[in-house]
């Protein structure tokens, strides 16, 4: 009798498992692993309305997409997908040059003159914007946030050269808490590229795409909405700024090294931050500085590379598609992989990308092909299909942790007739891989610097 009951229980369990596996296949958005995604094609398209669909009681700053309808201020520049992808390649190229020049430096060769390996170096654009406050009384600014660089800066009066920005320029003379960092201060030595003018420490950042900012290295009270403040925050007050910054007012550096926001905030808020990048440019996400709830997250170790201390490396060793591991030797990934908020499209070693792409094409055989879009070489024309079936893709790290890419992070869709696999290959296996922001969408990505690990959990953004 006891045997019968347990057999019955067993059957019920098996049935329940089958049922729930079945429903997870049909329901997007829950956390069970799906080998496939059934996707409503319309849901992949960018829209022209901003629907701020954040869950209430999230704790942090609102993230908007720079080129989307939620971005603050007027959008004078219409950026095309081809331009966004071109700028993305510029960023990746300069990250690769930075890594190479840093490597050469450690074996005693000359650094490339055009690309000093300095703190605060950044790589063009970056696509996500947050609002911060600076000074007393506080003024609000929209800035790009970037996990790939350290120094934060905003455009300041008196401007020798400023580009047009969203908000009025920051005027240091109107802030009672503002001070310049003197050349004699040890803080000035935190900058790799500094100079002295009238006793004031000057910073300079040159970007991979020849844009640049320089000005006074300063301190003032930083407000991180809604209510957190950081007094004596060190930042660049930029009086010569030129380049591809669009209309944002500056940049917040969330890199791993000294002078970054997170280095400066760690004693007050803990060495941790997290964000959720929205699935489309018509939604908003959040950026939260400091320790927050990390339940249900799975973590992988941060790897430190002393020659490029600003970057967050994680140990990617395998890829899964359609629920199956690809047959790629882990040594293919040995150049290292950076997780980055500013790169749009994930870059893989070409050996790994070729496998991923070929398998993806196999799975997608039934759909008509479309022309390549810039760096994206695997595109489909979904015009005739209201729904499409796309294989799931996951990153697998050396400690077994996996990051299952949300279905909104698999394709880069500029129009229904051209939906492209949102991954690309580097030129060489010896270049670092980058996990780009498209593949991080809708995840709560946790940078736990104190414990040297990066975590992923379901994000509370749409
Ligand atoms: C954009 O927002 C609208 C509501 O304003 C929503 O219906 C639509 O699905 C959203 N588009 C995407 C791609 O998320
Ligand atoms: C910046 O704004 C001013 C005033 O609105 C305008 O005259 C000027 O053309 C703009 N410059 C650029 C480069 O857009
Ligand atoms: C996409 O498919 C539709 C319907 O089959 C066709 O009319 C259209 O020309 C195709 N577009 C491209 C860019 O191939
Ligand atoms: C990264 O993964 C490789 C391959 O599994 C392993 O040999 C190496 O020790 C790992 N490195 C770190 C820092 O975890």
What does this structure look like?
- The chain is globular.
- It has 2 domains: 242 residues, Acid Proteases (Cathepsin D, subunit A, domain 1, Beta Barrel), CATH 2.40.70; 161 residues, Beta Barrel (Cathepsin D, subunit A, domain 1).
- 16% of the residues lie in helices and 32% in strands.
- The N terminus is likely disordered.
- It is of the alpha+beta class.
- It binds 2-acetamido-2-deoxy-beta-D-glucopyranose (NAG) (4 copies).
- The site of one 2-acetamido-2-deoxy-beta-D-glucopyranose has 8 residues, from loops.
- Belongs to the peptidase A1 family.
A few lines on this structure:
The chain folds into two domains: 48-289, Beta Barrel (Cathepsin D, subunit A, domain 1); 298-458, Cathepsin D, subunit A, domain 1 (Beta Barrel), CATH 2.40.70. Helices cover 16% and strands 32% of the residues.
> Assembly type of the shown chains?
single chain
List all distinct small molecules, including ions and cofactors, that are bound in this structure. 2-acetamido-2-deoxy-beta-D-glucopyranose
Largest sheet: 6 strands, mixed, barrel
CATH superfamily of the largest domain: Acid Proteases
Low-confidence stretches: 1-31, 53-57, 105-124
> What is the overall shape?
globular
The number of helical runs is 4
Active site: 146, 340
Keywords: Aspartyl protease, Disulfide bond, Hydrolase, Protease, Signal
Signal peptide: 1-26
GO biological process, one term: proteolysis
């Amino acid at each position: 009798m006891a045997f019968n009951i347990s057999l019955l229980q067993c059957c019920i369990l098996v049935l329940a498992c089958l049922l729930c596996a079945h429903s997870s296949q049909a329901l997007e958005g829950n956390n069970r692993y799906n080998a496939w995604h059934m996707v409503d094609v319309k849901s992949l398209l960018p829209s022209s309305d901003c629907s701020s669909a954040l869950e209430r009681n999230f704790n942090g700053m609102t993230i908007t997409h720079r080129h989307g309808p939620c971005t603050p201020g007027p959008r004078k520049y219409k950026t095309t997908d081809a331009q966004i992808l071109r700028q993305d390649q510029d960023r990746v190229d300069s990250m690769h040059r930075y890594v190479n020049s840093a490597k050469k430096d450690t074996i005693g060769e000359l650094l490339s003159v055009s690309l000093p390996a300095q703190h605060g170096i950044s790589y063009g654009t970056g696509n996500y914007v947050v609002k911060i406050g600076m000074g007393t009384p506080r003024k609000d600014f929209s800035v790009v946030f970037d996990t790939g660089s350290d120094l934060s800066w905003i455009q300041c009066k008196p401007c020798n050269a400023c580009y047009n920005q969203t908000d009025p320029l920051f005027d240091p003379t109107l802030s009672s808490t503002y001070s310049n960092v003197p050349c004699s201060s040890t803080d000035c030595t935190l900058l790799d590229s500094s100079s002295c003018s009238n006793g004031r420490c000057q910073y300079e950042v040159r970007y991979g795409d020849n844009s640049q900012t320089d000005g006074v290295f300063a301190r003032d009270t930083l407000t991180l909405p809604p209510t957190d403040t950081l007094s004596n925050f060190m930042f660049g007050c930029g009086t010569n700024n030129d380049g591809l910054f669009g209309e944002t007012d500056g940049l917040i550096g969330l890199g791993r090294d000294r002078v970054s926001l997170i280095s400066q905030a760690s004693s007050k808020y803990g060495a941790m931050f997290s964000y959720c990048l929205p699935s489309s440019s018509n939604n908003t996400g959040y950026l939260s500085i400091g320790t927050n709830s990390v339940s249900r997250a799975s973590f992988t170790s941060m790897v430190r590379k002393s020659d490029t201390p600003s970057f967050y490396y994680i140990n990617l060793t395998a890829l899964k598609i359609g629920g199956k591991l690809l047959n790629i030797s882990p040594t293919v990934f040995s150049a290292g992989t950076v997780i980055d908020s500013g790169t749009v499209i994930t870059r893989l070693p070409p050996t790994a990308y070729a496998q991923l792409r070929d398998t993806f094409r196999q799975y997608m055989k039934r759909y008509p092909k479309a022309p390549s879009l810039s760096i994206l070489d695997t595109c489909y024309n979904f015009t005739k299909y209201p729904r499409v079936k796309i294989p799931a893709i996951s990153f697998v790290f050396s400690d077994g942790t996996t990051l299952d890419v949300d279905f909104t992070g698999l394709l880069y869709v500029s129009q229904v007739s051209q939906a492209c696999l949102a991954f690309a290959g580097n030129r060489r296996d010896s270049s670092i891989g980058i996990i780009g922001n498209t593949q991080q969408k809708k995840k709560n990505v946790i940078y736990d610097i104190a414990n040297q690990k990066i975590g992923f959990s379901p994000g509370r953004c749409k």
